[in-house]
Structures are given as C-alpha cells and as structure tokens.
Design a protein that fits this description.
The complex is a heterodimer of chains A (232) and B (589). By secondary structure, chain A is an alpha+beta fold. Chain A folds into two domains: 100 residues, Beta-grasp domain (Ubiquitin-like (UB roll), Roll), CATH 3.10.20.30; 127 residues, Alpha-helical ferredoxin (Fumarate Reductase Iron-sulfur Protein, Chain B, domain 2, Orthogonal Bundle). In chain A, the strands form two sheets. A five-stranded mixed sheet of chain A has the order 2-1-5-3-4, with helices on one face. Chain A has a two-stranded antiparallel ribbon with strand order 6-7. In chain B, helix 1 runs parallel beside helix 4 and helix 5 crosses helix 15. In chain B, strand 4 and strand 5 form a beta hairpin. In chain B, the strands form six sheets. In chain B, strands 1, 2, 6, 7, 8, 9, 16 and 17 form an eight-stranded mixed sheet that branches. Among the domains of chain B are: 115 residues, Succinate dehydrogenase/fumarate reductase flavoprotein, catalytic domain (Flavocytochrome C3, Chain A, domain 1, Alpha-Beta Complex), CATH 3.90.700.10; 114 residues, Fumarate reductase/succinate dehydrogenase flavoprotein-like, C-terminal domain (Methane Monooxygenase Hydroxylase, Chain G, domain 1, Up-down Bundle), CATH 1.20.58. The chains are: A alpha+beta (232), B alpha/beta (589).
Chain lengths: 232, 589
C-alpha cells in the first residue's frame, strides 16, 4: 500500500523548521520505524532520529505519530488506520535536530525522586525475603523503559515548564515506594508532596495512553497520592 | 576537547555499568561513555534469566553449572575461566538482589528459577531450574538496577559519545577518542585504565535479534590497533527468532514447557506431546543447547517439514507451541514475548503457535582477555596495560564454541565486576603516562574522508549486501565454498567502503555519518568472522562445516587468534584450550 509520510525537520544551524513529505510503498505490517529507515536509506539520508532495539524494549525511538506519543518500532502501519502518517518530535523537550530532542533534562528530572534502591535493612547473607504477593504490588512499574513518552504527553508537564516532576518519575518512585525491601520512602515523600509533585496530576490519562509498556500510570500515581496522604 | 579521568568505561550495558559501579565504590574518578543513553543498551533486551546455582527450587551446584557450560561450549571454553564464572555467579546474583533487582519469587520468598537450554542436574541427567528470572525481562531489570545504583553513586555519564579509537602509546592504552554526536566534536579522553564493554556484532547479518546499534564497535577499534580477535568464527544462531523479523522469543518459552513443531506435527498443537526435538535430544528434548536446536530446525526445513514445506531455510519456518501452557503461565511468566507476538505477528500465543526461525543472536568470539578482564596482545597471554574488556565484546573464553542460555548475563555481571576489581588494583599501582602527538588525528581524517571525500558509494547498498552474504554464506551451515564466497564478497565491499561519502554535512546529530562509521566497524567483524570460519576445518558448537562434519579434537581443540596485517591480509595463531576437570567427550543430550 502507499502512504504519505510527513516528517518534522529542524535545522539547528539555521534555526528553521518545516515538514518534508514522502510518498512510500509499504507493507501494512511494516513498523513506522521501518518506513522511517526506508526514507533515510532511499530518499533523504540527512533525516535524524534515534533508534536501537527495534522491538519496544529500549525506548530510543519515542516520537509523536499521528498526534500520539508512540515508539516508532512498536506501531505497525496497519495500526494507524490512515494513509497519512504525521511525525513530530515528542513535545515539551528542546528539539536538537529533526526528531531528536534533548533528553538530558528528562533523565536529570527523574533523579529528584531518588530512583534507586535504598535498603530498608542491612543485606542478609542470601537474598532479601519477599513474598510473591509483595513482589506483585510493584510489578507493573518495573516495566518502565524511560522512553519519556508519558511525561512529554502530559499537559501539566508542558504547562509548568518542566518544573512538574512528571509521570515517568512517579513510575520510578512507585517501583521503589511499594517494594517491601526498600527503606527510602521518607526521603522521597517531600518531592512527591511538593507543589510540583503529585498534585499537579489531574488524571488526564495521556500518560497511560502513551506508555508503550502498557503501564497503568494514572493508577500508579493514584496509589502514590493515597500513600502520601496517609503518611504525611 | 581533552578530558582526564582515572578510568573510562566504554559502553553502558550490564558489563560496563557493573564495572563502573565497582570503580565508583572505590572513589575513583570514572566516566562512562556510550553512543546511546545507558538504559537503551542491549542488555535490556535479554529476557529469560541469569544462571546461578542457588538451588532455590531444587538441588543444584556450581560444579554442575561448570560442567554444563563446558559441554555446551563443545569443549572449547577455558575451564579455569568457566569454573570461576559459575562460582562467582552465586554471590554476584545475590549482590544484584541486594542492589534492589526485583527478581520473581518462589512461594517461600526466594529468587525464582526456571529451566533453560543445556542446564542440567548431576552432569546431564535432567533439566534443572537454574535461571534466576524477573518474568521475561531479566536483562531489562539488570540494566535498570545497575544504572540506578550508578546514579546513586554519582557516576559521570557522557551520553551519546561514540568512541571511535583507542589511544595506544607503545603497548599501553592511555584512553579513547570519542565523537560527541550532539556537537560533532572529537574529544580526547585520557585515562589510566579503559574498559571496553560495547557488545556484539549481530548487525553484520540480515536476520538478527540484535539492536541496530550492535555493530561490533569495540572489536573493530581493537583490531585496527593490532589487537587480535579470538574465536570469531563462532556466532550463535538462536532457534526462536520471530519469522522474518528476527525478534527474540526467549528460550524461557521452552523453559516453561514450550515445544517446537513441524508441519507433520500440527495435530499435536496444544496437547503438550513431544515434538521433533525428542528424537534428537532424548533426555532434554526442546531444551537442548541452541546450536543443536538451530541445526535441527534447519534440517527439518531442508527436508521439507517446515510449515510452508518449501525446503528453503531462508524463508521457511517452524512453530513454537505454547498453547498447552495455558493463559496464566503465558501471561505471568512470559508477558513480554506474548506482547511481541501479538504486536508484530498478530499471533495470540494462548491460542496459536508462534512462527519462528533461527536468528543471529550472539558473538562467542571477540577481544581476547584473561579472567580479570585484561585484554591480551597475543595467544601467549601478554596483556595490554591499561586496557580491559568484558561482556559480549570480549572472549575470556567462557562460551567456547556455543554459549548456553542465561550465560550471557552471567558473563556480563561476573566479568564486569572482576574487571572493575582488577582496574581498582591497577589504578592504585599506576601513574598517568604522558600523551604525545595528536591522538585524534587519525579519527579526524576518517571523519573528513566520510564527510568530504566525494566518493559515490552508498552505506545502505554495502550494508545490505554484507548482511545478505553473511546470512546466506556464513550462517547455520557453512562450507569452504560458501565461506570463500563470503570472504571475497566482504573484501570487495571493503574496497567499495573506501568510496563512501555521506550527504549530511552537519555537525549536530549526523546520524548518517554515524551509520557510515558503524558499517566500517561491521565490515571488520564480517571479515574476521569469514576468515576465521574458513580456516577452521571442523564442526564444533555453532560452527558447522558441511565439508568437515565432525569435531576434530586432535587438530582443533584450540582458540583461533586472527591478527590484522594490512588491508586484505590477516595472520593466525592459536592458543590451547585450558582443560582442568572435564575431558572432551562426544556431545550427546
């Protein structure tokens, strides 16, 4: 089938942006990433975008595809149900070139919630004990690949000029706060209960829709809100 | 720009991060350079588990793990190194758990374990539950846990810095040259010790489970500086890649009870009855090691029992049947691969089998090192002072001619950690040496040629040709004829590569230039793989020569070291295999 692909271009040397249009013959089962690579190989080698694993586990190729944040390697052409494919960089981050945005700020922002294991008690000789039930509580949020799709789809994040901690950081916080082995919750509560913390989330569900790992992020944020209120 | 650090780690997958974490615990000034962001590294794609004889589910011992790894390697692995790996695995895995890694759990709250290909109890008696797992995203959890701990220890990261060369003065490594993708600036990183942990070269082949960025960078960088490559002929083809795409379906699927089926076996889908592997490996059936299963699949297809029945291993496929496992097991133990099957193949694994074919998966060969991760100049174990390598880029050799499932994750955490510990020792004993000349002049010249050379060759043409020829002529089965064809084709492509130039002239994120550089590195891997495969006149592990179908211990129980002489010319020397406990025997499963 034939599709029309419109790709956002930004040239940092001239500070100019535009959309380039390409008509491509594709297989409906091709990934959007395959089509992007075909454009780069066959039509215009100067298009810049990130890619790596090509099957939805590394998080490199997050972009806005037909208005929604998606991994280009996880969306098949047939899923789009449209012959027009409109591709932009994810929003809310500085565009460096074409579809490549500055991710340094995103990763630095995550660090606010202390996104690492802080042991609750000294390590035993063997493993920490954790029941199957306790392990299941935070299973979903361990899936996060830090692609940034959730945070950059969040209107609150964009409105508050990145001051808002944002959904990805909450997912990381959830993964540790509800881990029965972790003892760092008091250190994390301040950031979560701050004016730029959890309460800027108004349950818009963009993050949940955007997550390529199918994490129910809005629910995870709800869990954190409840936890924060109870433990104030 | 010139930077100076005590130690540089190149690559931010499991091996690199484990090493950086070790160094950061000793308060050395460490920088991690990666052409990606750390959490994008390919360790994150590893699914099924990390092997360690914890014995949480049933009796196990590191000695059994040791034996299985030796046998799996078709007796080419060095037994001193394998013994160390299997023993270190236990404390290293427990340490990961102490770093917070969320392993799946047994009913009594311990790290859960599952069976995996080639892992047995009591020296081959029956499959054993040895793979410690976090659902089917074990690599993802290792990668993220190590990254988190590095963040906690304030390790300095240079993200999207692409390392293109080593600084070698005399015989000592003094650091690396890195290209900053965001600015196009060439940076000099001086260091007393450098760890290379850049992964494998799967993208030299057309069908692969490997990331686009898996382009053999570290191997080529060393090879060009006169460091040999060890055992490059051994490339693993994983039995269950998704048809046409090559995306990995973890061996954990067969660990949980999945069965491979051919076209004569379609009535047994969902019954749990044995498939064709039962005749080939009567004891462990579908859990035979990967080389055995991939060859069996190739033969099934060749003899017309593929699902399409065309007899063409390039396009025909088989089925991986999980239906009898039931929705619960599939959804809780194998959630990611089920999701892949639904997304990419529109197959519901609870109800229908997954179409699979062998996919290029893992480089057993690479930069030669000793058990402390020190890189070697030659087959006589002479170290390169200041240079270390660990993980898939390295060849210790613990995997020999064929790696067992789960042992790649064992390798990265054990040898990333050991390398880090030895670097600590080395840093304490060593002063900075003086850098002379312009260490970045060569790389600046290379970049200038690719950007302004005016040649007419296209990266995509050369890359596509290379991948096709490697897959067809240097794949599961090989002959002198096919390998000669591959070698000659690669030599011609290398000539054409000299005429590559890129259209993109910009400095900021010139991804076209990056792909051209990656192709240059891949052509070095492809060349050394073909040359090494051509010289090894026997079949062992993943290297199957139709013209030499038997293993030849008399002549070939040794490691291949390939050295760069000049373009188009290599020389070989050999290193005997270290055998301590297990004498080579016929490999029956």
């Amino acid at each position: 089938m034939q599709v029309t692909v419109e790709v956002f271009r930004y040239d940092p040397d001239t500070d100019e942006s535009r959309f380039d249009t390409f008509i491509k013959e594709v297989d409906p089962k091709d990934r959007v990433l395959d089509v992007m690579m075909a454009i780069k190989d066959e039509d215009d080698g100067t298009i810049a975008f990130r890619k790596s694993c090509a099957h939805g586990v590394c998080g490199s190729c997050a972009m806005e595809i037909n208005g929604l944040n998606r991994l280009a390697c996880q969306v098949l052409i047939q899923d789009l149900k449209s012959k027009r494919i409109h591709i932009r960089p994810i929003k809310g981050m500085k565009v460096l070139r074409d579809l490549i945005v500055d991710m340094e700020a995103f990763f630095a922002g995550l660090e606010k919630v202390k996104p690492y294991f802080i042991p609750g008690e000294p390590a035993p000789a063997a493993e920490y004990h954790q029941s199957v039930k306790d392990r299941a509580v935070f299973d979903e949020t361990t899936k996060c690949i830090m692609c940034g799709s959730c945070t950059t789809s969040c209107p609150s994040f964009r409105w508050f000029n990145r001051e808002f901690v944002g959904p990805a950081a909450f997912v990381k916080a959830h993964r540790f706060i509800f881990d029965s082995r972790d003892g760092g919750n008091e250190e994390r509560l301040g950031v979560l209960d701050d004016k730029n913390g959890l309460w800027r989330c108004h349950s818009i569900y963009n993050c949940t829709d955007a997550c390529p790992r199918e994490i129910d992020i809005t629910k995870a944020i709800g869990d954190l809100k409840r936890y924060t209120v109870i433990h104030r | 720009m010139v930077h100076k650090f005590d130690a540089i780690v190149v690559g931010a997958g499991g091996a690199g991060l484990r090493c950086a974490l070790e160094l950061s615990q000793h308060n050395f000034n460490v920088a991690v350079l990666s052409k990606l962001y750390p959490v994008r590294s390919h360790t994150g794609a590893a699914q099924g588990g990390v092997g360690a004889a914890l014995g949480n589910e049933e009796p196990d011992s590191p000695e059994w793990h040791f034996f299985d790894t030796v046998k799996g390697s078709d007796y080419l692995g060095d037994q001193d190194a394998i013994e160390i790996m299997c023993e270190d695995a236990i404390e290293t895995v427990l340490e990961l758990e102490h770093f917070g890694l969320p392993f799946s759990r047994t009913p009594d709250g311990k790290i859960a374990q599952r069976p995996f290909g080639g892992h047995t109890s009591n020296f081959g008696e029956a499959p054993v539950k040895r793979a410690c797992y976090a659902a089917d995203r074990t690599g993802h959890m290792i990668l993220h846990t190590l990254y988190e701990q590095c963040v906690k220890n304030q390790v300095r990261f240079f993200n999207e810095f692409y390392v293109l060369d080593l600084i070698v003065e005399g015989e000592t490594c003094q650091g690396v040259i890195a290209y900053d993708l965001a600015t196009g600036e060439v940076n000099v990183f001086q260091a007393k010790a450098t760890m290379l942990a850049t992964g494998g070269h799967g993208r030299a082949f057309s069908i692969t489970s490997n990331a686009h960025t898996y382009t053999g960078d570290g191997m080529a960088i060393c090879f060009r500086r006169g460091i040999p490559m060890e055992d490059m002929e051994f490339v693993q083809f994983h039995p269950t890649g998704m048809r046409k795409l090559g995306i990995l379906v973890s061996e954990a699927a067969r660990g949980e009870g999945g069965i491979l089926r051919n076209r004569e076996d379609l009535d047994n889908i969902g019954t749990g009855k044995d498939g064709f592997m039962a005749a080939i490996a009567p004891t462990i059936k579908d859990l035979a090691p990967r080389d055995v299963v991939s060859r069996a699949m190739y033969n099934e297809i060749k003899e017309g029992r593929g699902i399409a029945g065309t007899g063409d291993p390039g396009s025909d496929y088989l089925y991986l049947d999980l239906v009898h496992l039931g929705a619960d097991t599939i959804n809780t133990q194998l959630p990611d691969i089920s999701h892949f099957a639904r997304t990419y193949l529109a197959v519901e694994p609870i109800k229908e089998p997954i179409p699979v074919q062998p996919t290029t998966h893992y480089a057993m060969g690479g930069i030669p090192t000793d058990v402390e991760g020190r890189v070697l100049w030659d087959a006589k174990n002479k170290p390169v002072p200041g240079l270390y390598a660990a993980g898939e880029v390295a060849c210790v050799s613990v995997h020999g001619a064929n790696r067992l499932g789960t042992n790649s994750l064992v390798d990265i955490i054990v040898f990333g950690r050991r390398g880090g510990k030895d670097m600590v020792r080395y840093l304490q004993e060593t002063e900075f040496s003086r850098m002379t000349g312009e260490p970045d002049a060569f790389i600046r010249g290379e970049i200038d040629r690719l950007q302004n050379g005016g040649g007419k060759e296209q990266v995509v043409d050369i890359r596509t040709n290379m991948q096709k020829v490697m897959m067809v002529e240097c794949g599961v089965y090989r002959t002198k004829e096919s390998l000669t064809k591959a070698r000659d084709a690669i030599m011609e492509l290398r000539q054409r590569y000299q005429q590559v130039s890129v259209a993109d002239k910009r400095a900021c994120f010139n991804t076209e230039l990056m792909e051209a550089i990656e192709l240059g590195f891949l052509l070095d891997s492809a060349w050394t793989i073909a040359e090494s495969a051509l010289i090894r006149n026997e079949s062992r592990g993943a290297h199957s020569r139709e013209d030499f179908p038997e293993r030849d211990d008399e002549n070939w129980l040794k490691h291949t070291f390939i050295h760069y002489v000049e373009d188009g010319k290599v020389k070989f020397d050999y290193k005997p295999v270290t055998i301590t406990k297990f004498q080579p025997k016929p490999r029956v499963y």
